[in-house]
Design a protein that fits this description.
By secondary structure, the chain is an alpha/beta fold. It is built from twelve helices and twelve strands. The strands form two sheets. A six-stranded parallel sheet has the order 2-1-3-4-5-11, sandwiched between helices. The chain has a six-stranded mixed sheet with strand order 7-6-8-9-10-12, with helices on both faces. Helix 9 links the parallel strand 8 and strand 9. The longest helix is centred in the last third of the chain and has 35 residues. Bound molecules: beta-D-fructofuranose. The site of beta-D-fructofuranose (FRU) has 14 residues, from helix 3 and strand 9.
Length: about 350
């Protein structure tokens, strides 16, 4: 997350960039224009945040157009979106594959046709891509494992809710977490079920388990949406006050109705930061397009977010939002002046 100070620096830099652009109108007109195709597997709150971060970063690059596609968890549709980008001849493709097996061929096809490809957040099989950038899923689940062990001194019964089968974050988060907890004597993973990253599916699973008499002390969900869905079902079953099950999630996103809100209002006990990194993805894309050096594998760090840090994050996010609005307003004014000047 950017601190308000770094946002202020951004603010200064956008003004400097804009003024320089105005002074050197010729060179700006000559800058090569790029079209970047962005293929997302869905449009949940986390994806919307990533897309918004990309649009925000776009403010600093006057020579790019971003084209977004959302395949609504449908592999065939995501393949078709990428085929469309290939035939259009986009200058660069950013793709977050719904699941690896179904998307690997079409991503390879784009890469082998000469389009630079950034694979973001979820991986493909093999290494037919230009660069990969994602949160550190192993670190996420190590932190989760540490948290569970430290905060449940007497052990307990755990329900693990996983994302889509064959999506790399789901596989990596499960492997690391189950290995850690599996070696602890007083813990039992009573069920480990795919809820496909979705609130409604997690709600349904939790509801069925509780009605079947399954006893759970803690739900460890691979994202906050699933943790909140399971919590909603348990609140209905026990009543909010009598619901003693503890809930952990992943993502730790700020914004209305997201994980940080749920930690602050007590529905989730903690979450583990999984950065969407949209701004970094666009900076990486610009380095590739403009022939600048770049790291081929970028892994973004995680952190545990509990009640205290959630409150701090929420305050900082509000500051950031305010600064971003100011940047957008200033950018609008610079653009307006630019058009008049021409
Ligand atoms: C968003 C999401 C996140 C999760 C990530 C894993 O679509 O489900 O909640 O952390 O994807 O790829």
């Amino acid at each position: 997350m950017k601190t308000p100070i770094s946002i202020s620096l951004l603010l200064l830099s956008i003004l400097a960039t804009a003024s320089l652009s105005l002074l050197s109108s010729c060179s700006m007109q000559e800058k090569k224009q790029f079209v970047i195709g962005i293929s997302q597997p869905c449009d949940d709150a986390w994806r919307q945040k990533m897309n918004e971060e990309m649009r925000r970063e776009q403010l600093f690059h006057t020579n790019i157009t971003l084209e977004f596609r959302n395949s609504e968890y449908d592999n065939a549709r995501q393949c078709a979106d990428i085929e469309e980008f290939i035939s259009k001849g986009v200058d660069l493709l950013i793709v977050s594959p719904n699941v690896a097996d179904a998307l690997t061929d079409v991503v390879s096809k784009a890469y082998n046709s000469g389009i630079p490809v950034i694979v973001a957040d979820r991986s493909v099989n093999g290494d037919d891509y230009t660069a990969f950038i994602a949160g550190d899923n192993r670190q996420v689940s190590r932190l989760m494992g540490d948290y569970v062990i430290a905060n449940m001194p007497n052990g307990g019964k755990i329900l693990e809710l996983k994302g889509l089968p064959n999506a790399s974050p789901a596989i990596q988060r499960h492997e690391t977490f189950s290995k850690m907890i599996g070696t602890m004597p007083n813990f039992e993973i009573v069920e480990s079920i795919n809820a496909d990253w979705q609130w409604s599916i997690a709600d349904h699973i939790m509801d069925s388990l509780l009605h079947a008499g399954v006893v759970v002390d803690m739900v460890v969900a691979q994202n906050d949406q699933m943790a909140m869905g399971a919590r909603a079902a348990a609140d209905r079953y026990f009543g909010r006050e009598n619901n003693k099950i503890r809930f952990l999630g992943v993502d730790a996103m700020t914004g209305d109705g997201n994980g940080i809100d749920a930690i602050i209002d007590g529905r989730l006990e903690a979450s583990f930061l999984y950065s969407s990194g949209g701004d970094k993805i666009i900076r990486l894309a610009m380095n590739i397009l403009e022939g600048e050096p770049y790291e081929r594998q970028q892994i973004l760090p995680s952190a545990v977010i509990n009640r205290q840090s959630a409150e701090a994050m929420d305050l900082m996010a509000q500051e950031t939002e305010h600064e971003v609005e100011t940047i957008k307003m200033l950018k609008g004014k610079v653009d307006e002046y630019w058009h008049q000047h021409n």
